[in-house]
Every structure is written in structure tokens, then in C-alpha cells.
Design brief:
Bound molecules: FE2/S2 (inorganic) cluster
CATH architecture of chain B: 3-Layer(aba) Sandwich
Structural class of chain B: alpha/beta
Shape of chain A: globular
Low-confidence stretches of chain B: none
Number of strands of chain A: 15
Strand content of chain A: 15-25%
Number of strands of chain B: 8
Strand content of chain B: 15-25%
Strand order of the largest sheet of chain A: 3-15-14-9-8-7-6
Distance between the termini of chain A: 26 Å
Order of helices and strands of chain A: EEEEEHEHEHHEHEEEEEHEHEHH
Shape of chain B: globular
CATH class of chain B: Alpha Beta
Helix content of chain B: 10-25%
Radius of gyration of chain A: 18 Å
Oligomer: heterodimer
Number of domains of chain A: 1
Number of helices of chain A: 9
Mean pLDDT of chain B: 95
Strand order of the largest sheet of chain B: 1-2-3
Low-confidence stretches of chain A: none
Number of domains of chain B: 1
Radius of gyration of chain B: 16 Å
CATH superfamily of chain B: Nucleotide-binding domain of ferredoxin-NADP reductase (FNR) module
CATH architecture of chain A: Alpha-Beta Barrel
Chain lengths: ~300, ~110
């Protein structure tokens, strides 16, 4: 029988399929579509210290093989999430979750990280230093090696759980940033966040997105994500959660060959709420097709 | 009241009539019914008790401004998922942020912050 299990920093996952932050809320809406306990884990909506409304609408623009979003980290704030959302979440999801947090200062990252670190439901803390949709925050920490390392160190100093740094592709050399995170003590890397993109409405002659630009994701970015995971795998020793345009079991396998230990699936969930379920179900037959008995064994095997 | 661009775009006029209600049609080019928008018809009538409306945002806003009674509006927004997960369609309301796809799309006039 095909073995789908993988291990991320000592956390055993039944399979490598993890819905990506921002496309799965807190799991609440998807649990009405299928039993989400079949997932390896899920990465919760990026949460900040303070409650945020996010950006004005339109926040979404369609593209060929993908979409642009500019939600701007809408969330009810970490205190609310931990006190109100986590207990509810426990009722429909019984595996460790990935707590995705974001901040506008090093102290905010620390505050959120410390808070989720205490929660038994949290398996991994994913630090978003790559949101393209907020000013003076998020991505700016992830675009320089120095600040990426600074956030990593700060978060590590107040946590006990594995910390994964989520990187932006909107940099000159993502390898340098990944290395800086590893040097700062990161337990893993999540990559990639969205690519900065834009659409213009021909009728109004103005950008479709209210904030003008947004994060481009979807199948179109898969080769870019794959290439970056491949490069980072060669440069660091810590595990990688690969993401960016994955929309089939084949893509999952390809991403693992490039060096990902697990994968996150984002935009595909928006197009088809059953995407992750279908991918998990398709994995065994795809594995058989390529003579793979255990997914663990293929990690980084393209190198 | 049904508003269209032109005569050939008109639909559901008979279906609404079959329900036994008075039907008013407007077309932007004047090729059928009243020339102009539904708001041009709204202005000619009065004594509204309540309204239900759907259509493009600019029309919804115009109706909202024009009719003083309470009503319900079916909002439009660009959506990412349509199931309440991506927060792509959020509007701010008097009851806090709401997702048009999940908490709406129909909102009470009083909830809106227009
Ligand atoms: S479109 Fe995704 S939450 Fe409404």
C-alpha cells in the first residue's frame, strides 16, 4: 500500500497535503464540504496582533491560470482567534494545525508567536514575512536577509514549537533569505507566497484591484515556485513546505521531487472546495504510476 | 421595475406580469418602456412600503439614495472562492465586516454604511 505519510519537524502527517493560509479560513467553511480530518494539516488564515478589516474591495482579479488577491490580512486578531476560534476549531479538526501569523513589527510577531506557542492544537508556527498586500509590514521583513533573520531569532526566542518562515518570491535571491532564516534558527521554510501582480479594467482604464496591485497565485506560478524550492533545497538543511500553484496530485509529487517535505495548496481550494480531498484521493494511483511506494522517499530526489 | 440597455435585452417581463404585479420597464436607449434607468421610474411613483433590489452597484446605490423606506439589497462583489473562505468579498457594515458571498449577498438597507 502506498505510504503517504511525511514528517515535518517530528510532526507526523498522514499525507503532505495542507491547505494554504488565506484560502481556507479557519477550516470552518470547508468542514461543511468534507471531513477535513483527512488533510495532513491546515494552515490557518494569517493572523495579526490587532484585528484588521483589510483592504478595500475589489480585492480579487481573475487571470489566466490564476488570480490576484489583495485581501490585506483581514482577521479578527490573535486574541480572538486563540480564545474563541481555537476551541471551536477543536471540535471539527483533531490534528495539529499550522498557525500562520503576521506582524507589522518584530514585537507583534513575538506577541502572536508566544500566544499560539502555548496552544496544544498548534503543531507548527508559520511566520508570514511575505504578505505583498500590506504597507510597512509583512513582505518588507522578508525582502532582506537581515530583517528576515531578525524576525526568526525574535520568534525563536519566545517559542518552543517548530517555526517555519514563509518567504516571498518578490526578491532578487530567495536563497539568501532562506539561509538567513536557517541561520536565525528557523526549523523550516514555507515557500512561496504570491507574486506581485496587476490587472487593468479596459472599460474603466484603471487597475481592477482597489489597492492597484495584489498577490498573483494559481497554476501559472507553479514552475516559478518549483524552481525556487529546488534552489533553496540545495542551500539549506531544514525542511521545506512547498507551495505555489499546486493543483493536482502530480504537482504534489513534482514539488516533493524538487525538495518539499510537504505541500500547501492555495488557489486550487478557491476554484474547487474539494481540491485537497481530490488530490489526497488521487495520490496513491499517481504514485503507482511513477513507481513510488512512499512519498518520504522522493523528497529532493530530483537533485 | 426592470432596467435594461435596449429592447432586445429585456427579459422576465411576462414572468413578472404572470405573478400579478405591475411591471415597469426602462431602457437606456429608449427603445422600450421608459427611456433611462429604473431610477427614472422610481421618481415618477411614490408610496413605497419596502423594496428588494439587485443589479450593478451603481444602480443599487442610486436606489438606496432615492427610496426612503426600508429595503433589501443584493450586493455584487468580485469573489475569490464564493464560500466564505478567502475574505475576498468583504464589506464593512454596521454589524462589522461581512462577506458578501457568505453572510449575504442580500443585506438589509439599515446594515449598510453607504
Ligand atoms: S469570495 Fe471568498 S470569502 Fe467571499
Amino acid at each position: 500500500m502506498a505510504d503517504l505519510s511525511v514528517t515535518l519537524s517530528n510532526i507526523k502527517l498522514d499525507n503532505p497535503v495542507i491547505p494554504a493560509s488565506g484560502t481556507f479560513g479557519y477550516g470552518m467553511e470547508f468542514k461543511d464540504f468534507y471531513d477535513i480530518n483527512i488533510l495532513g494539516s491546515f494552515s490557518m488564515k494569517g493572523t495579526t496582533k490587532e484585528e484588521r478589516f483589510g483592504n478595500p474591495t475589489p480585492r480579487i482579479a481573475e487571470c489566466t491560470a490564476g488570480l490576484i488577491n489583495s485581501v490585506g490580512l483581514q482577521n479578527p486578531g490573535i486574541d480572538f482567534v486563540v480564545e474563541k476560534q481555537f476551541p471551536v476549531m477543536k471540535k471539527y479538526f483533531n490534528k495539529p494545525i499550522i498557525a500562520n501569523i503576521s506582524g507589522f513589527s518584530v514585537d507583534e510577531y513575538k506577541y502572536c508567536a508566544e500566544k499560539v506557542d502555548k496552544e496544544e492544537q498548534v503543531g507548527i508556527i508559520e511566520i508570514n514575512i511575505s504578505c505583498p498586500n500590506v504597507h510597512n509590514g509583512g513582505m518588507s521583513f522578508g525582502t532582506e536577509a537581515k530583517s528576515a533573520m531578525e524576525v526568526t531569532k525574535a520568534v525563536k526566542s519566545v517559542t518552543t514549537k517548530p517555526v517555519y518562515m514563509k518567504l516571498t518570491p518578490n526578491v532578487t535571491n530567495i536563497v539568501d533569505i532562506a539561509k538567513a532564516c536557517e541561520d536565525g534558527g528557523a526549523d523550516g521554510i514555507s515557500m512561496i507566497n504570491t507574486l506581485l501582480g496587476m490587472r487593468i479594467d479596459l472599460k474603466t482604464r484603471k487597475p481592477i484591484i482597489a489597492n492597484k496591485m495584489g498577490g498573483f497565485s494559481g497554476p501559472a506560478i507553479f514552475p516559478v515556485a518549483l524552481r525556487m524550492v529546488y534552489q533553496v533545497y540545495e542551500a539549506v538543511k531544514i525542511p521545506i513546505i512547498g507551495m505555489g500553484g499546486i493543483s493536482s496530485a502530480k504537482d504534489v509529487i513534482e514539488m516533493m521531487f524538487a525538495g518539499a517535505t510537504a505541500v500547501e495548496i492555495g488557489s486550487a481550494n478557491l476554484k474547487n472546495p474539494y481540491a485537497c480531498k481530490e488530490i489526497i484521493e488521487e495520490l496513491p494511483s499517481e504514485m503507482e504510476k511513477y513507481k513510488i511506494n512512499s512519498l518520504k522517499e522522493i523528497i529532493g530526489k530530483a537533485h | 421595475m426592470l432596467g435594461f440597455n435596449s429592447k432586445e435585452d429585456v427579459f422576465y417581463e411576462q414572468e413578472f406580469k404572470n405573478l400579478g404585479v405591475e411591471v415597469y420597464v426602462s431602457t437606456v436607449d429608449g427603445s422600450y418602456g421608459t427611456k433611462g434607468f429604473v431610477t427614472d421610474i422610481i421618481k415618477t411613483l411614490n408610496g413605497y412600503d419596502f423594496y428588494y433590489t439587485c443589479g450593478p452597484m451603481n444602480m443599487l446605490k442610486a436606489v438606496y439614495e432615492l427610496i426612503e423606506t426600508s429595503g433589501e439589497l443584493s450586493l455584487e462583489e468580485r469573489m475569490g472562492c464564493g464560500i466564505g473562505a478567502c475574505m475576498g468579498c468583504t464589506i464593512n457594515t454596521k454589524n462589522g465586516p461581512k462577506r458578501v458571498c457568505y453572510n449575504g449577498p442580500v443585506f438589509k438597507k439599515e446594515e449598510l454604511m453607504w
